[in-house]
Prior knowledge:
The chain has 1 helix and 11 strands; from the N terminus they run ββββββββαβββ. The protein has one helix spanning 89-94; strands spanning 6-11, 14-21, 24-29, 37-40, 43-49, 55-65, 68-76, 79-84, 98-101, 104-110, 115-121.
Amino acid sequence: MSFRHGYFARWRGTEYEASPDGAQVRLYVSAPAEGFTQVTADRHVRVVPAAEVERLAYVSTFCTWRGERFVVLGEHDGWTRVEYVGGKAPVAERLGLERFDRGVYQAWAPRAEIENLREEAV
């Protein structure tokens, strides 16, 4: 399963991974496409005027693990990397989360224990 975390834009009816840059938006695809320039073997970019973009949003995938709310950062081999968004250090410590930075707690959670996966866009 793929988890989205970052900017996404709808341009000409298609949704792309994106990066806003002032009056322009960079759109990305993994395979060659008309009008896109290859940046790396599996990354192609096209810069379009922001005014042409139908929708631009920051999308995050959230879940519930052990009864608490987390943002999903990625997945590998049946494990999901999650970051606690509850903001309560005692709860993070009780859950045995790794302190990644001040106020930032993360963990590798078994995929089978992840519940209520949902995307939110702002």
